[in-house]
Amino acid sequence: MPCATSSCLPLFPVMQLSFSAFLAILFLQSGLDKVLDWKGNKAYLTDHFAKSPLRGTMPLLLPVITLVELAAGLFSAAGAVAVLLGRGPCLGGIGATCAVAALLMLFFGQRVAKDYAGAAALVPYFLVATAALYFFMHGCGA
For residue range 13-27, what is the model confidence (pLDDT) as tens digits? Predict the structure, then answer.
């Protein structure tokens, strides 16, 4: 039996909470890993891009992607809390926007490095982030 409107959880806040939690976990872990193992990540990425047009750019690009990932994670976590407290979806929308930006940066890097499998592995995350963006922007009056 379908649930009556008054007894159902509203779709958009449930989706916003789910997307926020997912993106917070994804990007807080990734960003914090870069911060906590800066030297290891820098060495790996320097080697990964050694034969690409991006060689030599890790001192500039690693801090940028790290900051964008941390912003995505922090805004998404704050967005989850805001949705739980009934404060609106806009913080989560900022988190989803940062997530989309981070994933586009990562995708670009993987393609330039000719790591096509790595680029393909980012596509599901990108689809989740863009779906999140839809659910958040709809709720922010966009």
Answer: 899 999 999 999 999
- Burial class from Cβ neighbours inside 10 Å (0-12, 13-18, 19+) for residue 129 reads buried
Report yes or no: 110 and 122 within 8 Å, Cβ to Cβ: yes
Residues 6+ apart with CB under 8 A from 90: 79, 82, 136, 139, 140
Alpha-carbon distances of 134 from 16, 33, 99, 107, 110, rounded to whole Å: 10, 28, 13, 20, 25
User: How far is Cα 93 from Cα 59, in angstroms, rounded to an integer?
Assistant: 29
* Contact present, 140 and 90 (Cβ < 8 Å): yes
Q: Where are the alpha helices (DSSP H) in 85-115?
A: 90-112
Task: Report the pLDDT value the prediction gives residue 4, as an integer from 0 to 100.
Answer: 52
Tell me the pTM.
0.89
End-to-end CA distance of the chain: 34
For residue range 38-60, what is the model confidence (pLDDT) as tens digits? 999 999 999 998 899 989 898 99
Using the 8-state DSSP alphabet, how is residue 7 labeled?
A: G
